[in-house]
Design a protein that fits this description.
An eight-stranded parallel β-sheet has the order 8-7-6-3-2-1-10-9. A two-stranded antiparallel sheet has the order 4-5. It is built from eleven helices and ten strands. β1, α1 and β2 form a beta-alpha-beta unit. The protein is of the alpha/beta class and 309 residues long. Helices cover 37% and strands 15% of the residues.
């Protein structure tokens, strides 16, 4: 397909015909649907309008209405921080439910794409300051079962990377068995190797080149403002990923402030879009439509950039 010009949507209330008209007038051609926005009528409407759409599948995230074993930190406490709660990565019951849900979603909605989110070890990365001591980042999982599995590897780091890569492989194969033409994306934590002493691989288990080989595109969540980084970090991140061998990247940027009280100026959003549409990316996703569609200034910026492509 052409350059991906997309938005992430989490609330179907912002997906009425009026809002979808506005979406298309802005030049948006791709929609990532969180589970709160997922319904048959909307999916059919998106298809009829010729929009490419994805179902975002949260892999290890445990929602309030789900039950199961949470991952365990080194001190024995559960892997939970605010709304971020992660399942134990070796909990076979949890993974069976995830696989069943993905299978059911593909059969019920026939999506052109699925995107695996929260496919990593526990970390509330959105709240991690770049000045944080990497040694203090929470590590998981230290339940008896995970300790036993990790002991068979050269190190915990290699175990984590291997487990996440294998999970991505399993889910990608499952999705393609259900729908051979489905396009698969993987949400990537936006940390270069230099950030937090390589914690993206060591602590959360995301190996960019390995994951890139299993999907159609990686979507790094390049939310520079919530990371307390200059907007130029988006360009640096995409350059780093390209040098790592990731050929198909669709960067995600934030449209306004989140997890911070300090405001993010519209001009900074414009720069974020420009960097995300640079030579190392096949498009951009805006987080999130609910914020963008109610902001005339940012809508105008988006429309001007998207229409010029």
């Amino acid at each position: 397909m052409n350059k991906v010009l997309g938005v992430k949507v989490y609330d179907s209330l912002y997906c009425t015909d009026t809002y979808l008209d506005l979406m298309q007038e802005t030049g948006i051609n791709t929609v990532f649907l969180g589970r709160g926005a997922l319904n048959r009528e909307l999916c059919e409407n998106l298809t009829q309008r010729g929009l490419f759409w994805n179902i975002v599948e949260p892999v290890f995230l445990v929602t309030d209405n789900e039950h199961g074993n949470l991952a365990t930190r080194e001190d024995g406490s559960p892997a939970a921080d605010d709304w971020v709660r992660f399942a134990c990565p070796t909990d076979t019951d949890h993974m069976a439910r995830v696989q069943s849900r993905i299978r059911d979603d593909i059969r019920a909605f026939n999506p052109p794409g699925v995107s695996f989110d929260f496919i990593r070890f526990f970390q509330f990365w959105e709240m991690a300051s770049p000045l944080s001591d990497p040694r203090k980042l929470p590590r998981t999982c230290y339940c008896g079962r995970c300790r036993e599995e990790a002991s068979r590897f050269e190190s915990e780091d290699k175990w984590r990377k291997g487990l996440i890569t294998e999970t991505a492989k399993t889910l990608s194969l499952l999705a393609r068995e259900e729908s051979p033409s489905v396009r698969i994306g993987i949400h990537a934590v936006p940390w270069t190797k230099a950030l937090f002493d390589g914690a993206r691989e060591k602590v959360i288990g995301q190996d960019f080149p390995a994951l890139a080989s299993l999907c159609d595109y990686l979507t790094p969540m390049a939310y520079h403002h919530m990371m307390h980084m200059d907007v130029s970090y988006i360009k640096d991140l995409l350059s780093y990923m390209a040098k790592e061998g990731c050929k198909h990247i669709v960067a995600s940027v934030q449209s306004k402030e989140a997890y911070r009280t300090e405001s993010m100026d519209a001009s900074e959003y414009e720069k974020a879009l420009e960097y995300a549409l640079g030579p190392n990316s096949e498009g951009v996703l805006v987080y999130k439509w609910e914020d963008l569609c109610t902001d005339k200034k940012r809508l105008g910026i988006t429309k001007a950039l998207f229409k010029g492509l």
